[in-house]
Amino acid sequence: MNLKQLAAEKAVEYVKDGMRIGLGTGSTAYWAIRKIGERVREGLEIQAVATSKASEKLAQEHGIPLIPFAKLDGLDLTIDGADELDSELHLIKGGGGALLREKIVAFHSKEMIVIADESKLVDKLGSFPLPVEIIPFANEWTLASLDEISANPMLRTEEDHIFVTDNGNYIADCRFGSIDNPAELHRKLLAMPGVVDNGLFIGLAARAIIGRKDGTVTVLER
Ligand code: DER
């Protein structure tokens, strides 16, 4: 079993009958969706929403019942990965380009459990470029605004074209270097016209489940 699978399957132990679940996005969340699908086939009764078109497709393939947002007023638990997490469970997410839907789903969940292999643990956020979702309109000016705050933004591309998120937006991968105050940077970015959201998840995750190289799993709590 790989470290991502180890963490993901431990997190799925927190899923109980009757829960409304947010399904994350990425290669770690993949294992959680697989395991939830297995338990659904064994009789687990849950309702779920997905944080990306890719996870929606995966959930359907695994027989997980997806419910329209209009029929739910929130979620009990979201299980999702991260690109980096620090000791206060501040996260950088968005490596897979799903940060906006992931943040909305996490925000409306009673609990968010982060799942990761131990390589994602950092003392300070910022080694991983911070994904910032921006609208296409005047993106050149938004990129210039990001550059003015030392973001060193790079518009994300996929093969030979600009990467477009599930929401029709672009992603600027920003290299701030070590981020001393993630909460302050998060606020500064949200105030910038043209920026939709960013990959800093502050105060959303209460628990992290980490797969360790020695085959153990540790649970970190804020
Ligand atoms: O795009 C995302 O936010 C993903 O959750 C990402 O941060 C983690 O992806 P991984 O599990 O494939 O490393």
Automatic annotation (TrEMBL):
Pathway: Carbohydrate degradation; pentose phosphate pathway; D-ribose 5-phosphate from D-ribulose 5-phosphate (non-oxidative stage): step 1/1. Its EC number is 5.3.1.6. One of its GO terms (molecular function) is ribose-5-phosphate isomerase activity. GO terms for biological process: D-ribose metabolic process; pentose-phosphate shunt, non-oxidative branch. One of its GO terms (cellular component) is cytosol. The active site is at E102 (proton acceptor). InterPro entries: NagB/RpiA_transferase-like (IPR037171), Ribose5P_isomerase_typA_subgr (IPR020672), Ribose5P_isomerase_type_A (IPR004788). It is an enzyme of class 5 (isomerase). Keywords: Isomerase. Substrate binds at T25, G26, S27, T28, D80, G81, A82, D83, K93, G94, G95, G96, K120. Gene3D superfamilies: 3.30.70.260, 3.40.50.1360. It catalyses: aldehydo-D-ribose 5-phosphate = D-ribulose 5-phosphate. Catalyzes the reversible conversion of ribose-5-phosphate to ribulose 5-phosphate. Homodimer. Belongs to the ribose 5-phosphate isomerase family. This is Ribose-5-phosphate isomerase A. It comes from Paenibacillus azoreducens.
